[in-house]
């Protein structure tokens, strides 16, 4: 990696803005105005005869659920809600009064899996609506969400199904682990190796690689090609112990440099140095010139928007990053941008 000046790091701190959290958006309003008038039909015979009824069969009132699953980096409780419905047009399921999901034309038995974050009591309410969107029946239970028994990073890796083992002490790494390079269907391979190999990192980096793998899967990618995680050095080089320079996040094994991505089922690779087209203006969403450029921009922007990483330096950023995404987890410098005037050398087409 080439040098980038400490001044650049200082400027990074002043840039960027925080994206919304990954919490689920509540769904829209309950009422469906005018639906009955539009439909205008006669309800089926069985619906006409039966009284509307809706029950939460499970969980039972007072049930307790530990947050022992992982969703987008958080400990969560996955709660299966089993519903029975008779003669209702729509079921709306609410958590603490906020609509979470709707089932149109529900069957007699339906199951919805809720993802619950945070601890404490939760009121689950199922509303049975008629064709006009009016409430005809409801059922409510209150459950309790509790913390995970073991909320450690190691337990998180186990919950994700990541293969890992503790590594011995390594200078700069708070919680060193060796991680097998396969996350979901995505392998992480060092650029000069033919095959993926185990990776040394701080434990807290591994769940982020799992989140990134989730995004890459969506994009049809099964290989992330990288150029390094751990390197005990300062930003731009130098000895972190000298006290005269700023340690890189690579010194703590809490960053990864992503060089390219391989498409599943083909030999096609999208490579930052070749395929990312430097443009002026904001990096996200950018103005992609072709499919490879579009996919690379989508990866870079999703890593930021989904909060997978907080610092993302792209080829747009500066001369030291033309051939990779540098990504790390420094929370207070949410950053993805184009270039920094006065720091980045003049490059044709790069917005200053
Ligand atoms: Zn880096």
What's the quick description here?
By secondary structure, the protein is α+β, with helices and mostly antiparallel strands. The protein is built from 7 helices and 19 strands.
Rg over CA atoms, rounded to whole Å, is 25 Å
Terminal CA distance: 23 Å
What percentage of amino acids are in beta strands?
A: 25-35%
Which stretches are poorly predicted, pLDDT < 50 over at least 5 residues?
Answer: 1-41
Portion of residues in helices? 10-25%
The main β sheet shows up as: 7 strands, mixed
Q: Helix- and strand-based class?
A: alpha+beta
Bound molecules: zinc ion
Mean pLDDT: 85
**Number of DSSP helical runs:** 7
Describe how the helices and strands are arranged.
Elements: H1 6-13, H2 35-39, H3 45-49, E1 53-58, E2 64-66, E3 69-71, E4 74-86, E5 90-95, E6 98-104, E7 109-116, E8 120-129, E9 135-146, H4 153-160, E10 164-166, E11 176-179, E12 182-183, E13 186-190, E14 199-202, H5 206-218, E15 221-226, E16 255-263, E17 269-271, H6 272-275, H7 291-305, E18 311-313, E19 325-328
This protein binds zinc ion.
Zinc ion binds at residues 250, 255, 257, 326.
């Amino acid at each position: 990696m080439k040098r980038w000046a400490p001044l650049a790091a200082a400027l990074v701190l002043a840039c960027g803005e925080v994206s919304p959290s990954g919490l689920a958006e509540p769904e829209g309003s309950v009422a469906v105005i005018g639906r009955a008038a539009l439909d205008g039909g006669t309800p089926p015979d069985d619906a006409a005869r039966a009284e509307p009824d809706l029950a939460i069969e499970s969980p039972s009132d007072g049930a307790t659920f530990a947050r022992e699953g992982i969703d987008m980096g958080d400990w969560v409780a996955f709660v299966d809600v089993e519903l029975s419905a008779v003669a209702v047009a729509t079921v709306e399921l609410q958590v603490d009064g906020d609509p979470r999901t709707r089932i149109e034309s529900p069957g007699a038995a339906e199951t919805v899996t809720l993802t619950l974050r945070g601890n404490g009591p939760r009121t689950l309410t199922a509303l049975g609506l008629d064709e006009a969107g009016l409430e005809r029946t409801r059922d409510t239970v209150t459950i309790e969400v509790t913390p995970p028994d073991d909320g450690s990073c190691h337990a998180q890796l186990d919950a994700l199904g990541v293969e890992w083992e503790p590594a011995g002490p390594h200078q700069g790494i708070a919680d060193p682990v060796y991680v097998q390079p396969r996350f979901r269907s995505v392998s992480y391979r060092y650029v000069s190796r033919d095959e993926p190999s185990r990776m040394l990192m701080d434990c807290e980096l591994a769940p982020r690689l799992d989140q990134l793998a989730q995004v890459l899967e969506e994009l049809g990618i099964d290989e992330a090609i990288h150029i390094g995680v751990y390197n005990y050095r300062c930003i731009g080089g130098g000895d972190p112990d000298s006290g005269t320079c700023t340690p890189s996040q690579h010194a703590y094994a809490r960053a990864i440099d992503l060089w390219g991505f391989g498409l599943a089922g083909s030999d096609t690779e999208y490579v930052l140095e070749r395929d990312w087209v430097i443009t002026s203006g904001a990096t996200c969403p950018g103005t992609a010139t072709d499919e490879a450029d579009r996919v690379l921009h989508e990866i870079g922007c999703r890593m930021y928007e989904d909060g997978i990483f907080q610092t993302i330096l792209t080829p747009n950023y500066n001369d030291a990053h033309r051939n990779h995404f540098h990504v790390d987890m420094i929370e207070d410098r949410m950053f993805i941008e184009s270039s920094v005037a006065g720091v980045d050398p003049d490059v044709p087409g790069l917005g200053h």
